[in-house]
Specification:
The protein has about 90 residues and is an alpha+beta fold. The chain is built from two helices and six strands; from the N terminus they run αββαββββ. It has one domain. The strands form two sheets. A four-stranded antiparallel beta sheet has the order 3-4-5-6, with no helix packed on it. Strands 1-2 form a two-stranded antiparallel ribbon. It is globular and about 40 Å long.
Length: about 90
């Protein structure tokens, strides 16, 4: 849960209280503003597992090694991936 809180909300005086998602598809533009706790609850659903490609999935958040930097030290950093469009389907 602490990992999810750090990824979605952050810490300290810059911790988010809201999440804004904007989407443009062809000529349609839509946006949604949700309290951060709704997003945290959504991304906290599920289980922790390792995918077929060897990445770690922390509930609804994917985690993988960054890579792609031609062997530079930054290639060993982690990426956390969420699908913000999922928040449009929440009540």
């Amino acid at each position: 849960m602490l990992i999810i809180l750090d990824i979605v909300k952050g810490r300290g005086k810059f911790a988010a209280e809201w999440i804004l998602v904007a989407q443009k598809y062809e000529d349609i533009f839509r946006w949604i503003l949700k309290p951060i706790n709704i997003a945290i609850n959504h991304y906290s659903e599920g289980k922790v597992e390792i995918t077929n490609r060897g990445n770690l999935k922390i509930r609804r958040i994917g985690m993988q090694r960054k890579g792609g930097d031609a062997g530079m030290e930054t290639a060993n950093m982690l990426q956390f991936k969420v699908d913000p469009i999922e928040l449009f389907n929440l009540k």
